[in-house]
Write a structure and sequence with these properties.
Blueprint: E1 11-19, H1 32-42, E2 53-56, E3 60-70, H2 77-92, E4 98-100, E5 122-125, H3 134-141, H4 147-153, H5 168-189, H6 195-214, H7 219-234, H8 242-248, H9 261-268, H10 272-278, H11 289-318, H12 324-340, H13 345-352, H14 356-368
Antiparallel strand pairs: 1-3, 1-4, 2-3, 2-5
Helix pairs in contact: 2-3, 5-6, 6-7, 12-14
């Protein structure tokens, strides 16, 4: 990178939020670790996700490491989305003196010294945090932009289909309902291969739903998740024995997983058509532009071709011309008549002003049809 400016950004792999808590009187005399403890109790995984790293020294900075996202050369949508995420998170922390950070800002070196007050720079890492993609942060933690914003920016027009954005709680509620729809479909066709996967996901999503509703999981939540999963299992036409499926899905009590839609589709062996047919609300695979165009062409190609042919014939008729097929047909009839009169190949080509290759091709076609 030539210099640390926005124009020279080519990839985003982290988003930062500065928390200048010393600008607030109530927090002025606290040290960074005390502020971090307050954020862990009241903010993280409730208003905003848990950061992957926290840089602290004089003040603190929250750092979200994201899956690398390369910035297209002629589009700024990736940069705009990353900036919006930083702004929204900073707004949630405004009571703590938070400010959004420029995407091109540098992070300090661990164990270095802050030039303002001589404080040592340290990092606190959260090992069990999720490394999100920008799209996941948008879907799980940002509200949908109002229509007036999109119209004012001139980026999108109103669409007939509403795109649903979820927070973590409603997303997992919808996923549980989707799993029940998939179960009903599998029961109807007598399929049993995906039972264990569905039970695992059902228990996993139930725990995530409870965690994001209450802030933390209790023993009662784990018992309820097990109970609901067993109820779900018993709805299969060939359920597993309770103790077998309970042991097989118990690992989610230690770690819960936030799956991407694409991962779930591959895991459950679903296609877009099946998602649409089953009416799934949260486990879906949007069609690409190429797929939409392909489906539209398949549906309308025959009609379009017929319309184009009829229009072409009408235009030729209006101009007093023949179609290519009619021209070939009439030329071959004439060649047949001239051959019947005893004319040679050379005479026919001269009289009709056609090439030798055209004559040979037409004569071959006449022979194949049994006309000469």
């Amino acid at each position: 990178m030539r210099s640390g400016t926005r124009n020279n950004l080519f990839c985003i792999n982290a988003i930062a939020v500065d928390v200048d808590y010393k600008n607030k009187k109530v927090f002025k005399d606290l040290d960074p670790k005390q502020i971090i403890n307050l954020l862990e109790l009241d903010i993280f995984d409730q208003a905003i996700p848990m950061p992957n790293l926290i840089e602290y020294g004089n003040q603190i900075r929250l750092i979200y490491t994201v899956e690398p996202c390369y910035i297209p050369k002629d589009r700024d949508n990736v940069v705009v989305l990353a900036q919006r995420i930083s702004e929204v998170f900073a707004d949630e922390l405004k009571d703590y003196g938070a400010e959004k950070q420029n995407l091109e800002s540098y992070y300090r070196v661990p164990q270095s010294t802050n030039s303002k007050n001589g404080a040592e720079i340290n990092f606190l890492a959260y090992d069990n945090t999720i490394r999100y993609t920008l799209r996941e942060l948008q879907e799980l933690w940002l509200d949908e932009l109002p229509k007036w914003y999109k119209r004012r920016k001139g980026r999108t027009k109103d669409k007939k289909k509403v795109v649903k954005l979820h927070n973590v709680y409603t997303l997992n509620c919808n996923r549980i309902r989707d799993l029940e729809k998939i179960q009903a479909h599998l029961n109807s066709i007598g399929e049993t291969n995906l039972r264990a996967r569905l039970c695992f996901l059902y228990r996993n999503f139930y725990l995530i739903k409870e965690k994001y509703q209450k802030g933390s999981l209790t023993k009662e939540d784990f018992k309820n998740a097990e109970k609901e999963m067993l109820r779900f299992n018993n709805n299969f036409i060939e359920p597993y024995r309770n103790h077998v499926i309970e042991v097989s899905t118990r690992s989610v009590n230690h770690t819960q997983y936030l799956y991407k839609n694409e991962t779930l589709l591959n895991f459950l062996e679903l296609t877009w058509e099946q998602c649409e047919e089953l009416g799934l609300d949260s486990i879906y695979k949007p069609k690409t532009k190429e797929q939409i165009d392909k489906d539209y062409y398949k549906k309308n190609s025959k009609t379009k071709i017929e319309k184009a042919k009829n229009k072409y014939k009408e235009e030729l008729k209006a101009k007093g011309k023949l179609s290519k097929k009619e021209e070939v047909s009439q030329r071959r009839v004439k060649i047949k008549d001239l051959l019947a009169e005893g004319l040679t190949q050379k005479d026919i080509c001269l009289q009709m002003n056609i090439s030798k290759i055209t004559y040979i091709r037409d004569r071959k076609a006449l022979k194949e049809q049994g006309l000469i």
